[in-house]
Amino acid sequence: MKQTxxxxxxxxxxxxxxxxxxxxxxxxxNGRSVALNVGDALVVLLHGNAxxxxxxxxxxxxxxxxxxPASEGTYQSDGTAPGSPxxxxxxxxxxxxxxxxxxxxxxxxxxxxxxxxxxxSVVVH
Length: 125
Description:
- The protein has one helix spanning 2-16, and strands spanning 22-25, 33-36, 41-48, 55-59, 67-77, 86-94, 98-107, 114-124.
- The protein is mostly beta strands.
- A hairpin with a 6-residue loop joins strand 7 (98-107) and strand 8.
């Protein structure tokens, strides 16, 4: 429920900023390919728990000329109790035609072990 509210708020904010369309992805979309038009927004919402030290981080080589970061890794807790899990949000704007891959990993920044990974191929028309 909370994730839906977070997604709706992010989509509303992006729509107000003049985005033509908003595509929202979740864990189940890992490995998917998405097509966007220039001016569209891409929102990725992933579960996590920042209180454990684990965070979602962008890795790899994102073509920022094609898919420009608007906001990366913002965190919203799902509860009020200390240690509650929540949702990490990544927002991007399709700025030019091209192809790129968005790669994210869930890990502690000071450790090499990766607990989870998320990747999506993006084509902007």
